[in-house]
Amino acid sequence: MNKEAHKDSQTVAQQERMVLKQMSRDFLDPAREWCRIFAETRDTFLLVLVAAGG
């Protein structure tokens, strides 16, 4: 593996860690709880609707 490819893979790994860190902070934010509950309810409804063939 050449130096440039190694540097690129390190950059990608670092960017992925930054995104995951940001996602977890947003996910754990209590102010967004209503949004998570709404999304879970909506998505569950859609899954049941598709599974029922409707």
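Second entry:
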Amino acid sequence: MKAWHRWFVVFLVPIFAFQSLLFSFASFDRLAVAQSAPEIAIVGFQPAVEAVERDLLEGLSSYLQGQANVRVVSAESVNSFLTKMELKETSDAQTKLKQAEESFRAGKRAYELLKADVAVREFTAALRAFEKSMAYLESNRYLLMAYLYLGMSKFLRKKTKEGRDAIRAMIVLDPKRASRKLSAKFFPPKIISTYEDIKQEVLANSKATLEVNSTPERARVLLDGVRVGRTPYKATGLSAGKHYVSVYKRGFARWSQAVTLKPGKNSVDAELKRNLAYPPVERRALFISQSTALQQTAKQLGADILLLATLQAAPAKKSAYQIKGQLFSASTGSFSRVEVLQVENSGLAKQRGFRFGKILLDNLNEQGAVVPWTRGSGDRLAKQEPQSGREADLQVPALSDVPGITETDIPELAEWQAIKRSRKKPFYKSTWFWVVVGAVVAGGAGVLVFTDIGKSDADHNILVIDNPSLP
């Protein structure tokens, strides 16, 4: 091997090896940081409700998944958890309805055995259970019969007025009261006679109207346990007295309320809340009461941080939305400040979600912990989005990084791209450049070594001696 070959191998190959070792350490360090990063679960959005909400969630998730300082709990895990919670809520209501039916059957058996006290107790328990689960009641047969048998049991105890009141309540709730007849096969003549007298009184006073409105509209309406239409809904010819109104819409919690109608016009406004949504906690007084439930949710999801959020119509702006978001730390029970962002155009919801992710992550410190809100003594926690031209605007990622967004979607893209290009590092400061250089150097050294080895030993051992000139 020639001398310069040896020097090339001796000096340059170790340099390349050292550089590769440093690059490996950097990779392991980044991997360690990623593994120690807190897991964040996005529990504030419901993509099944509106398309704009689905796009916002997609943009927000895309941004968070691209950050090294957080890990994102999969959307499948979050959706599975929310579905289980919704099914549990429905299951609990159905269990109460079954208990109500069992109480009714127990009361009926007691009535047939002339055990009036037991019957009254069971029918009263049945009615209480029905009222608690009225939002899920879609057949009022047992409800009506519980009122009727309660009245009959009251008659057995010689409490005529209370008995008539119970039977009246049954007739008021019965949508088929005008045509319903009690069978002489199952009911005594006195009860049938009383029932007919009260029915005529109720029919003579059926002059109430009811308007049911909801936010949002087009929600289903149940009146006294019977489906009657969608909001905005108007019913006429109702009897004055106690009625039950239930309103529900996909993606929202069921709303139910007992209302006492008076002759004339009556109205009900149902403000539907997002079903199983986790909105930001905007009042300090609610921090402690909300922390325990949120910590349990985070534990079930295996998350260190919950991203609480809500989407609502922007005040005084048509076709615009407002996002509110907040981070909650499961380990410390602390809440970040509430961040607010406007969505002027629903077609740009993905890009705005992407941007909102950056704004929210500003509430994490260098260790990945939530920075608690401690500012001032006011109740509301609100931070408006940065104004155009501020530093936060200059750091918005390119729209090309957001799935489904093209350069023509927003006019500011050219400016943002120019800013992004101006902040790029020179190529000779990039890791990939020196990796390529090292590979070329090592390859060249290897070629020289193998070329040198391939030469014959005879060529390497030739001794050249100048032959002096002959005389």
